[in-house]
Amino acid sequence: MAHKKPISERVDYLLKLMTLQEKVGQLNQYSGREVTGPVTSKQTYLLKDIKDGMVGSMLNVKGAKETRETQAVALQSRLKIPLLFSMDIIHGYKTVFPIPLAEAASWDLAAIRQSAHIAAKEAAAVGLHWTFAPMVEGAGEDTYLGSAIARARVLGFQGDKLGDTDAIMACAKHFAAYGLVMAGREYNAVDISNQLLWETYLPPFKAALDAGVATFMNSFNAINGIPATGNSYLQRDILKDKWNFKGFMVSDWGSIGEMIPWGYASDLSDASLKAITAGSDMDMESEAYKKTLAQLVIDQKVDIKLVDDARQ
Q1: How many CB atoms lie under 10 A from the CB of residue 63?
Q2: 252 annotated active-site
Q3: Which of 2, 71, 75, 148 lies 20 to 30 Å from 187, alpha-carbon distance?
Q4: Domain total for the chain?
């Protein structure tokens, strides 16, 4: 029977059934508080896009009622592909734990892993599948400790097996050097040597990957003049090629579109081209992929293999 086949075979079969627009739609992530509540203009097009199979993931939708009702809309789409529900769960869900820096000060890896596990258990109970954590920069400046904590939190969130009722997908963020912004201005530019990048800022991400982290999130900042969202060296050369990461990369909020004010992309279409080429798989809230990616494929500016790879 079809459901007995390995997941990779089932994904390949599903990809063959999908239209280009449906493939692009699965790379689109919306924020939707109270998606199924009182109807507003945004909720109207959110629900239409979900029903049309043009959304792969939602963030800020939680609770059994909300997730079930929103998922029911997704299952009205042609191929009935369910949504991934996600949320920032940085230091606890219902049970609030110390912020990551305070947890790091304890040096208690078992307690840190347990706090992530409790957060995962609570989040899974309200219909969430995915957290945007660990935020590896939050563990402080010591590379060894940061790496150990990244591993502990990934194992805590993801448990023994993804799909268990006490486990959710983890997301190592923000890739990379998010905490080294000039003048301490959040989302600012970063000027960093390869030695500092590799010796100090990349090891906690590698530790998260080695622990089996399901996803990564790129960062708002530019590194040596190139926004992380469009940075092939980070996302393709290091993460997907050298480290052989098989999960997917989600953008930070609107960061694909933000490559325009950075001066790195000329318009939304150019931003999509540079982001998908560099290895950014899912577009959080900029709607760049939704609006421009299919046409880029039609115009042969983007290879359909990049879209297929991102969807998998």
Answers
A1: 14
A2: yes
A3: 148
A4: 1
Q: Is residue 99 part of a domain?
A: no
Q: Tokens 């280009």 correspond to what residue?
A: 20
Alpha-carbon distances, residue 26 vs 19, 129, 184, 296, 309 (angstroms): 11, 16, 35, 16, 12
- Cα 42 from Cα 182, distance rounded (Å): 36
Query: Two tokens at 175?
Result: 């890739």
3-state secondary structure of 281: coil
Q: Which of 49, 252, 270, 283 is catalytic?
A: 252
Task: Give the pair of three-digit tokens for residue 278.
Answer: 């560099």
CA distance 64 to 124: 10
Residue that has been written with the tokens 């992929």 in this structure:
289
In a domain, 133, yes or no: no
Rounded to two decimals, what is the model's pTM?
Answer: 0.91
pLDDT at 211 exceeding the cut of 90: yes
User: pLDDT tens, 294-309?
Assistant: 999 999 999 999 999 8
Structural domain of residue 79, as residue ranges? 21-87
* DSSP letter string, 192-232: --HHHIIIIISHHHHHHHHTT--EEEE-SSEETTEEGGG-H
Q: What is the pLDDT of residue 36?
A: 45
Report if residue 100 sits inside a domain: no
Q: Is residue 30 part of a domain?
A: yes
Say if CB 36 and CB 291 are below 8 A apart.
no
Could you report the per-residue pLDDT of 111-163, keeping only the tens digit for each?
999 999 999 999 999 999 999 999 998 899 899 999 999 999 999 999 988 88
Give Cβ neighbours of residue 185 (< 8 Å, ≥ 6 apart).
Answer: none
